[in-house]
Backbone:
């Protein structure tokens, strides 16, 4: 049986997951001297857009020099699946909170972790594919040994551009949702948690 | 030679030497006293790399027919805006899209003479929406959109000879004003020039200006046949009035330099446009037949169109009492300027020895008291002493124009003695003067015609530069000079050359404009009749002797880039659309042997048409003229021309290739 606090944490977790429907999850920005106004794209649950209205087209136009495939959101199957996957996770969290079912809550957290890892692996594979499978027949700029895979997370120099990849607001919300899910499982283990707190708090105070 | 005589000789010689020495000492000393210390001036005008100017200055291009845009205080040239002259640099006035802006009742005119830029106002302050400018030679007005820095509207003015006293805006841009510099027979007719006094008239025009695309001559006041030179609308208490200088009240028609300079007084005409509005509303205007062009540019069609207007509302002073009065003003006044409070009407008697300043409140009292000295063709002339607020003594020779600061002082340009003279309304006394190099015409203070000038700089616009810049043969640049006016003494900071002849100029706080700039035109909103919004929409079609090619440009190729099926005797119309949707990515287009049109410069999302008439069989290259990308040199193509009568199938590279999916660029 889940405590009230654990159920509240699950409700909050579901709500934060819901933010993924209205906020971008990930952002890849490109910086170069001749783009002082910035250039970049945002990955949403169901689409990819430019940070500014035409950024995606402009990135595609630039990518044609190196023979990279056009990024066409409609042709990326993951973008069609992700809303349903997140929907299932939200349903799990909500059901666990409603039924006070601890197993459901555990299942939610495990599924969440598994899907998040799968998502990151998939994103890496996608980036690898775009960065490596170049149309060398029609590429204009060809540099031996050069590939153009953007970083999974962090910054990387790709020719004249510094590509930076970071979670956006929706991604941060998802991470917070995962932490809340884990918290919901741990809050219920009241005796052990408070025993540990009993030690941690005085120690913490002493340190301060 | 006796000793006394020798000593007198020596004394005289010494005297001459001393005098020469004094003169030499005097010249440079005068110059250096007006200069900021060598360490100070550079820092005042230095806009460091990567930083931007504080003001936009819009300077008329004079006989170039264009507008020059400069940054202040650096004096850097930012853009030349084509207005009334063809501009081969970007094809303005050569291509089908922009030629209608040059249309008039005389047909298309490739050139004019711009004089006075005027920024739109709201409540007497620059609002950064539009810039207006006049064409002096074939009387016209233009409106420039300050989100694009492009001409979007031109209007011809009927019944006018020399549209000089314009296009100054009223306090809320209700109207831009105009006046005929040269009186002419109105309406035009073939008469003896010696019948000037009988047949020649002037007009004062009010052009509705508050809505883009809807400029219209609201009404014209028919006035005696003098030369109406410059004008300014009132502001604050004098809002609703406009003031125009006149000269040649002698009504000379030959050797004007002598014959129009005989009278001691000419007039400033005070015109009440609110009264004229009421008279027109009351049906007291007459609809005169006329023929004048109104041309507008459509942002979505990327194309201008022209319509001819056939009638204009004319009001006779006798039909609208109270609409016009004359204020006697010494010696052929040139400029007339209204101070920021709207109370003072400052004339520029170019041959006068004083600067006459009239008072608006005194004028209103004199009108009430009917303090008139006479009437001229039914127009009351107010007694000079009843309207005059003061005369500035010793202003130098040839005072022309005035701008104002934020501290109740005026800066008058003085042409013959080449100087700026500062005086204040508190006592009408000259407090400072500084030389200009040389022969200053107009001058500007940023915001100087508004209710709240910035009072930071005054810019002199000089007609003669001689030794100020490196020589360039007989034709020398004209120039602007920037002076600091924050202290008690004006200080020269910078000289910079200008395009054409900068008559008048206005400057506006950059903050009011720079963040509103259009960066590209949206392709999805492009409704040009020959637009190709993607490569899949390109194509070639024959219509009689015309071959239309819908073409696209994107880094770094044209589509199509191979064209066949054209014959000598055909006219090829390249309709090129720039598919880019990003800032600062124009493409250019030019084809070999293009003898009737200039190149095309295509802004992102824009469509333009190059008319190309091949003269000889062969294969001719075309290419991108604006360095667009790393593969700009590869951005080229060929058009094959067969001899006249030899039919070759119409064919393009895009038609030969598999179709590009819709939406693909």
Residues:
């Amino acid at each position: 049986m889940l405590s009230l606090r654990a159920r509240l944490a699950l409700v909050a977790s579901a709500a934060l997951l819901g933010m993924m429907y209205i906020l971008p999850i990930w952002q890849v920005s490109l910086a170069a001297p001749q783009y002082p106004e910035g250039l970049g794209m945002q990955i949403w649950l169901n689409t990819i857009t430019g940070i500014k209205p035409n950024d995606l087209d402009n990135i595609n136009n630039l990518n044609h020099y190196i023979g990279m495939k056009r990024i066409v959101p409609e042709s990326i199957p993951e973008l069609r699946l992700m809303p349903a996957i997140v929907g299932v996770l939200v349903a799990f969290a909500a059901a666990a909170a409603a039924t006070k079912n601890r197993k459901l809550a555990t299942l939610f957290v495990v599924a969440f972790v598994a899907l998040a890892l799968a998502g990151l692996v998939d994103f890496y594979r996608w980036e690898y594919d775009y960065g490596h499978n170049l149309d060398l027949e029609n590429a204009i700029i060809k540099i031996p040994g050069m590939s153009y895979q953007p970083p999974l997370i962090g910054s990387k120099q790709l020719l004249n551009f510094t590509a930076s990849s970071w979670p956006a607001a929706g991604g941060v919300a998802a991470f917070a949702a995962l932490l809340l899910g884990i918290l919901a499982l741990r809050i219920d283990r009241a005796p052990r948690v408070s025993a540990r707190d009993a030690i941690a708090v005085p120690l913490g105070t002493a340190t301060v | 030679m006796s000793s006394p005589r020798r000593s007198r000789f020596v004394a005289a010689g010494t005297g001459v030497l001393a005098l020469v020495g004094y003169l030499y000492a005097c010249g440079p000393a005068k110059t250096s006293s007006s200069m900021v210390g060598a360490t100070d001036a550079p820092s005042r005008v230095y806009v460091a790399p990567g930083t931007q100017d504080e003001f936009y200055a819009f300077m008329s291009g004079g006989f170039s027919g264009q507008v020059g845009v400069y940054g202040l205080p650096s004096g850097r040239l930012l853009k030349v805006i084509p207005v009334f002259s063809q501009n081969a640099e970007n094809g303005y006035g050569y291509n089908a899209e922009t030629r209608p802006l040059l249309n008039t009742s005389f047909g298309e005119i490739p050139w004019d003479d711009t004089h006075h830029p005027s920024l739109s106002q709201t409540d007497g302050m620059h609002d950064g929406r539009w810039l207006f400018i006049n064409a002096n030679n074939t009387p016209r007005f233009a409106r420039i959109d300050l989100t694009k820095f492009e001409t979007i509207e031109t209007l011809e003015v009927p019944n006018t000879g020399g549209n000089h006293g314009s296009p100054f805006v009223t306090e809320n841009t209700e109207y831009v004003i105009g006046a005929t510099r040269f009186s002419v027979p109105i309406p035009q007719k073939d008469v003896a020039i010696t019948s000037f006094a009988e047949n020649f008239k002037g007009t004062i025009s009010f052009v509705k200006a508050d809505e883009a695309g809807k400029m219209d001559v609201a009404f014209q006041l028919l006035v005696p046949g003098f030369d109406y030179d410059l004008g300014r609308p009132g502001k604050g208490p004098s809002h609703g009035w406009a003031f125009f200088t006149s000269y040649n009240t002698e009504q000379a028609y030959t050797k004007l330099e002598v014959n129009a300079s005989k009278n001691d007084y000419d007039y400033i005409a005070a015109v009440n446009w609110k009264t004229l509005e009421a008279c027109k509303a009351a049906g007291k205007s007459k609809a005169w037949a006329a023929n004048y062009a109104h041309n507008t540019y459509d942002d979505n069609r990327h194309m201008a169109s022209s319509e001819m207007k056939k009638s204009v509302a004319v009001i006779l002073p006798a039909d609208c009492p109270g609409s016009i009065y004359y204020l006697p003003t010494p010696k052929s006044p040139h400029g007339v300027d209204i101070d920021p409070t709207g109370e003072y009407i400052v004339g520029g008697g170019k041959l006068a020895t004083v600067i006459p300043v009239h008072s608006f409140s005194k004028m209103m009292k004199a009108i009430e008291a009917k303090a008139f000295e006479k009437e001229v063709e039914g127009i009351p002339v107010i007694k000079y002493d009843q309207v005059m607020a003061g005369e500035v003594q010793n202003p130098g020779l040839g005072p022309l124009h005035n701008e104002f600061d934020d501290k109740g002082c005026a800066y008058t340009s003085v042409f013959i003695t080449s100087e700026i003279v500062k005086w204040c309304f508190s006592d009408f006394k000259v407090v400072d003067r500084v030389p200009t190099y040389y022969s200053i015409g107009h001058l500007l203070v940023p915001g100087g015609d508004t209710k709240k000038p910035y009072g930071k700089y005054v810019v002199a616009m000089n007609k003669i530069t001689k030794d100020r810049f490196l020589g360039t043969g007989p034709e020398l640049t004209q120039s602007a000079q920037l002076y600091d006016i924050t202290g008690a003494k004006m200080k020269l900071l910078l000289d910079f050359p200008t395009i054409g002849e900068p008559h008048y100029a206005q400057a506006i706080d950059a903050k009011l404009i720079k963040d509103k700039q259009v960066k590209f035109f949206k392709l999805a909103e492009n409704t040009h009749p020959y637009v190709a919004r993607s490569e899949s929409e390109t194509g070639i079609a024959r219509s009689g002797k015309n071959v239309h090619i819908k073409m696209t440009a994107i880094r770094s190729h044209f589509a199509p880039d191979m064209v066949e099926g054209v014959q000598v005797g055909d006219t090829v119309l390249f309709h090129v659309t720039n598919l880019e949707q990003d800032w600062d990515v124009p493409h250019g287009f030019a084809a070999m042997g293009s003898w009737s049109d200039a190149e095309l410069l295509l802004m992102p999302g824009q469509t333009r048409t190059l008319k190309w008439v091949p003269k000889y069989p062969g294969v001719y290259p075309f290419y991108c003229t604006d360095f667009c990308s790393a593969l700009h040199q590869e951005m080229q193509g060929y058009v094959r021309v067969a001899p006249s009568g030899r039919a070759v199938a119409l064919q393009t590279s895009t038609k030969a290739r598999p179709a590009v999916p819709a939406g693909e660029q």
Summary: The two ends of chain B are 101 Å apart (CA to CA). The longest strand of chain B covers residues 286-298. The mean pLDDT of chain B is 93.
